[in-house]
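Ticket opened by: R.M.
Priority: normal
Category: complex prediction / small molecule

The reporter submitted a protein together with 2-acetamido-2-deoxy-beta-D-glucopyranose and asked that the result be attached to this ticket for the collaborator who will pick it up next week. Submitted input follows.
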Amino acid sequence: MKSILIILLCTVAFGLEYQSCSTVSCGTGANNQCISVYTNNKTTIVTPCSANQTCADNGQFSGTTGNWAAANCAEKSAQPSPSIDCSVSLTTLTGKPCCNDNNCKSGSCDNGICEGLSNGANCTVDEECRPGYYCKSTNWTFPTNGTNVTNETNLTGLCSDSLSSGDICTFHNECPIGYGCNNSTCTQLFSQDINAVVSDKRFCKSDFIRNGKCDGIYIRSNNTRLSSPYACTIGQRCNYVYASDNAVAAEDWCQCGGVKNDTGYCGSFGNVIGYWDEVFPKLQYSRSDCSGNYSHTDNFAELFNCSSLSSIEEQYLEGMNEQATYWTLYQSGAIDSCVNQLGLFPTNVTLGSDTSGAMMMVISSILLIFA
Ligand SMILES: *[C@@H]1O[C@H](CO)[C@@H](O)[C@H](O)[C@H]1NC(C)=O
Ligand SMILES: *[C@@H]1O[C@H](CO)[C@@H](O)[C@H](O)[C@H]1NC(C)=O
Ligand SMILES: *[C@@H]1O[C@H](CO)[C@@H](O)[C@H](O)[C@H]1NC(C)=O
Ligand SMILES: *[C@@H]1O[C@H](CO)[C@@H](O)[C@H](O)[C@H]1NC(C)=O
Ligand SMILES: *[C@@H]1O[C@H](CO)[C@@H](O)[C@H](O)[C@H]1NC(C)=O
Ligand SMILES: *[C@@H]1O[C@H](CO)[C@@H](O)[C@H](O)[C@H]1NC(C)=O
Ligand SMILES: *[C@@H]1O[C@H](CO)[C@@H](O)[C@H](O)[C@H]1NC(C)=O
Ligand SMILES: *[C@@H]1O[C@H](CO)[C@@H](O)[C@H](O)[C@H]1NC(C)=O
Ligand SMILES: *[C@@H]1O[C@H](CO)[C@@H](O)[C@H](O)[C@H]1NC(C)=O
Ligand SMILES: *[C@@H]1O[C@H](CO)[C@@H](O)[C@H](O)[C@H]1NC(C)=O
Ligand SMILES: *[C@@H]1O[C@H](CO)[C@@H](O)[C@H](O)[C@H]1NC(C)=O
Ligand SMILES: *[C@@H]1O[C@H](CO)[C@@H](O)[C@H](O)[C@H]1NC(C)=O
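Result attached by the on-call engineer:
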């Protein structure tokens, strides 16, 4: 009786014991089953699928808890190739793909990309001016206190040179490429620290705003604040708290990394702070093929389309995002020997690295959980 009680207490106090975590390792040879689970000896074998196939349940590789389920290989869904409408007339905006001059609002298609209207040309929206210019209204002026920010459609204006860093502004598109209007001042995107008061998340190094301030998540376990790689002891809780005021954002168990020892990782949001905080500032930009909203944005898909970020930066961001998604397995190294074939995450990512590129993932979904 006594021993049963002790076991129960231990279970309540420590949750998952590392003995109940699966050991995860790479299988070899052709196997249509990409995840094989042996409950008798708590072993999970992952086997890469053949070309053009992918594991039907890749989601299991993120947030590893020990509860693995068998999964088979499935056909990869074909990526739709982006098509250009060659029949549009005088509509395509600056920096967007075109087939001929007639497609572009500016009437000029250069190397498959629409050029913008030049300085002093009549315009109605910012996005038809050349990069670094905006459509400055000629029949009314914006108030200078920054509270009246319109999206400036149907202006009567002239393409005009953008303001400079630190200048007084009323809307984002007036500011230089890669800047925005933050409390009436042209401010670089991804530049503000936690607790800075900002008008938009795009100014934060974390790309995350809460209660009008740049914010992020700290991770705590066993009453200690963790730093990357957020290692914890299996059986303990992970607490995710807002950096600005320590309010609880989320809580869960320390996750097994598929290795038979009692080190796990607070992997659910291991990427949010101290991680993205370092990633986004490296992606500050000051060039663009585009103008208007497309050159004052924190939307990475747009920024790649407009060449504001290089393919190296795209690979870096994508690699960091994939590592973050599969944080626990990435940190434990349990499947490093087959991860390239699995295509889950690159094991090493730097801004200078040359990992193979794939489709961009939606980074902000990680942060949206806290919005
Ligand atoms: C676990 O069990 C399976 C099948 O019973 C066996 O193929 C595998 O080798 C075992 N793994 C370990 C690590 O003992
Ligand atoms: C994979 O897909 C590509 C393009 O869709 C095709 O050319 C290739 O033959 C396929 N390979 C296999 C092994 O099916
Ligand atoms: C610009 O607009 C003004 C006023 O509508 C017009 O007089 C002028 O001809 C236009 N300039 C060009 C180059 O279209
Ligand atoms: C500026 O001119 C445009 C087009 O003539 C008009 O639609 C708009 O209302 C005008 N704006 C103001 C503030 O007068
Ligand atoms: C900003 O300027 C507008 C127009 O000038 C005014 O109505 C508004 O009260 C001002 N807002 C602040 C916060 O000063
Ligand atoms: C913004 O300011 C302009 C000029 O003062 C005014 O015409 C416009 O109605 C204002 N828009 C809003 C949404 O307050
Ligand atoms: C900007 O215009 C769009 C429609 O073109 C509208 O839905 C949106 O509310 C406008 N935003 C502002 C801030 O006025
Ligand atoms: C802009 O003007 C065009 C044509 O004049 C009109 O069809 C469109 O609805 C206007 N858009 C807005 C947001 O006012
Ligand atoms: C905006 O800037 C003004 C002047 O620099 C400053 O007094 C004010 O506190 C700022 N507001 C916010 C919300 O940061
Ligand atoms: C928790 O922290 C205390 C002291 O801070 C340490 O002595 C203890 O070993 C830790 N427990 C675990 C399970 O890491
Ligand atoms: C557990 O395994 C991981 C990965 O192999 C290693 O980094 C960690 O140091 C190990 N922890 C302990 C307590 O041995
Ligand atoms: C990343 O790993 C690959 C293969 O393991 C290696 O060839 C490459 O040099 C590494 N890159 C960096 C930047 O460490």
